[in-house]
Every structure is written in C-alpha cells, then in structure tokens.
C-alpha cells in the first residue's frame, strides 16, 4: 500500500498516522509506505517505486483543480498495471 499526497506536510501527517497504527498493531499488513507524489504530465515510471504495477489506485477529492486533470490522468496511467483500475471519488 502506497499512500501519497502532493503536499509534504500531508505526507508527514500520513506517516505519523501509519506509525501510530503500526505501533498499535492495527495494520493488516506491514507493507504500508507514504510518499510525496506531485502529478505531472512528464512523470515517468522511473520517478515512482513500483510504478506500472498497481492493481488499484484510489483517489479522493482530487478533481477540484481542472487545470491538473491531464497531469492526474497521466500520473494514474504511469502508476497502474496494464489491467489496473483507478477509483476516483469526489
């Protein structure tokens, strides 16, 4: 599981939350990482660990900046495996 945000402060908060859950032994897997990820139309698979391998990408509250829709689509395409699916919630 890879949890991302484009804002470093949010990523830091995600990391604290993950560590808290890990300490409380509340995670179903130890394979949870956090990472800053800025959408970009020039993003390549070399920029993100395990890019092109994700079966699912879940995005929430990501559509309010219309100018970045192209970058979001490219980023999703970069992350997903060939048969992967993006689940987008607004």
Q: Extract low-pLDDT stretches.
A: none
Strand content: 25-35%
| Largest sheet features | 2 strands, parallel
Question: Kindly, what is the distance between the CA atoms of the first and last residues, rounded to a whole number of angstroms?
Answer: 21 Å
Q: What's the total helix number?
A: 2
**Estimated radius of gyration:** 14 Å
User: What is the N-to-C succession of helices and strands?
Assistant: EHEEHE
Strands, count:
4
Morphology? globular
Q: Main attributes?
A:
two-stranded parallel sheet; 90 residues; 4 strands; single chain; alpha/beta; 2 helices; globular; 28% strand
Structure report:
The structure is a single chain. With 90 residues, the chain is α/β, with parallel strands linked by helices. It is built from two helices and four strands. It has helices at residues 8-23, 69-79, and strands at residues 2-5, 33-36, 54-60, 80-89. The strands form two sheets. A two-stranded parallel ribbon has the order 1-2. The protein has a two-stranded parallel ribbon with strand order 3-4. Strand 1, helix 1 (8-23) and strand 2 (33-36) form a beta-alpha-beta unit. The two termini are 21 Å apart.
